[in-house]
């Protein structure tokens, strides 16, 4: 089985480390790769969309699982699919949408693998209705540190440790998923402006239950009475009757548009407070005050950035930090305070979104809890950024909140226990399941997972 020594980084392109990259093409090769991991261990990796160091392993092995990418069976009548963990959500959509089915949960990109979706227990715009990805997993096959392949089902400790466990319990080989029925590949979308953060939270609280999908883009450079102003976008899958006559002949057609890739080299300093402030002003002003029932392509509603390959390059060689936290209902003052601090500090973020989470998911390290989650991208070379985010971490932890491990690249380990109350259970299960530390990552070392 071929292996090469490469520099590996997350989607944020910060803190690259060198590892042996191994690409198993069969389950047997995956077993061999795990057994031959060496003293620095190994970590499974999908399409590299974790923003930080979760799929890096300095001096060890990284198992590229994208070669195991077969869809084995689709139950068209019952709405389920059995597939390899290396299958991307994009591939699933291509196969499932013509049959009238959609993936139950998708993040802001469809270029993540099923194994990565379970390992990070991803969430989407529909968490308040559908929960995280792992809630829709019927069963999975997990290759553990001793080379055994185990069938793992919901309701067991091993499943709850694996869902959101960042690949540290083993290598997911296959998964069976429940699907979402759809009649078309168009979305019926309502868009409106919110004048400030309180206005936005009031709109979400009052009407989110009417929508399957909901998300708000926030202008984090706006200050004063406009602090937290936003564009709120919500919708659901459009029924066949909502389509114009010309579109009804092929209602399940799926052809996402693609623009030219971002250039390999981008001038440093492109994303400044001034340029991002101009973008934010234009984006807010061009949004309708209130528009109902607009038909949008599924890809445009869920994955607008997928239309620009390698969009992460626009941040330049220094890369960027994606910071995402959640605080519970009743902690709105903490959210207000953090949004105000970010606005006053003038962090140049043009990708900032707020969502409401529904019920918590069973994964011991799953991120969502009922409440408010804010995610933002910030250029990594912003002066004083590390110290500033450390202060926000402390504020989030004090409010009983947490940060998202799949996006983290710099959290201090001392805050982790308060953020994730089942952390000790996770560590104990790992010690029992993997006493030699076969599965390890840069994230795991940094946070002593």
Question: What can you tell me about this protein's structure?
Answer:
With 449 residues, the protein is of the alpha+beta class. It contains 13 helices and 19 strands. The chain has helices spanning 27-35, 89-96, 114-119, 127-130, 157-162, 197-207, 273-286, 298-302, 332-345, 385-398, 416-419, 423-433, 442-447, and strands at 3-8, 17-22, 42-45, 61-64, 71-75, 80-84, 101-102, 137-143, 149-152, 171-178, 180-181, 186-194, 213-218, 230-237, 290-297, 320-328, 352-357, 371-379, 402-403. Strands 15-12-14-13-17-18-16-19 form an 8-stranded antiparallel sheet. Strands 5-6-10-8-9 form a 5-stranded antiparallel sheet. A hairpin with an 8-residue loop joins strand 1 (3-8) and strand 2 (17-22). The radius of gyration is 21 Å and the shape is globular. The relative contact order is 0.15. The model has no long low-confidence stretch (mean pLDDT 94).
Quick structural summary:
By secondary structure, the protein is an alpha+beta fold. It is 25% helix and 24% strand. It has 13 helices and 19 strands.
List the helices and strands and how they pair.
Layout: E1 3-8, E2 17-22, H1 27-35, E3 42-45, E4 61-64, E5 71-75, E6 80-84, H2 89-96, E7 101-102, H3 114-119, H4 127-130, E8 137-143, E9 149-152, H5 157-162, E10 171-178, E11 180-181, E12 186-194, H6 197-207, E13 213-218, E14 230-237, H7 273-286, E15 290-297, H8 298-302, E16 320-328, H9 332-345, E17 352-357, E18 371-379, H10 385-398, E19 402-403, H11 416-419, H12 423-433, H13 442-447
Parallel strand pairs: 2-4, 3-4
Antiparallel strand pairs: 1-2, 5-6, 6-10, 7-11, 8-9, 8-10, 12-14, 12-15, 13-14, 13-17, 16-18, 16-19, 17-18
